[in-house]
Amino acid sequence: MxxxxxxxxxxxxxxxxxxxxxxxxxxxxxxIGGRRIAAR
Length: 40
Prior knowledge:
By secondary structure, this protein is an alpha+beta fold. The chain has 1 helix and 3 strands. The radius of gyration is 12 Å and the shape is elongated. It starts with a strand and ends with a strand.
């Protein structure tokens, strides 16, 4: 099975959470369209 790597930025500025990481992290370990998702 092929793996798709998705990445996001860490929080920046005065923020403690980055919404892009929250979205990417929620996909980690899932299989979509026959591809394994890895978030880093």
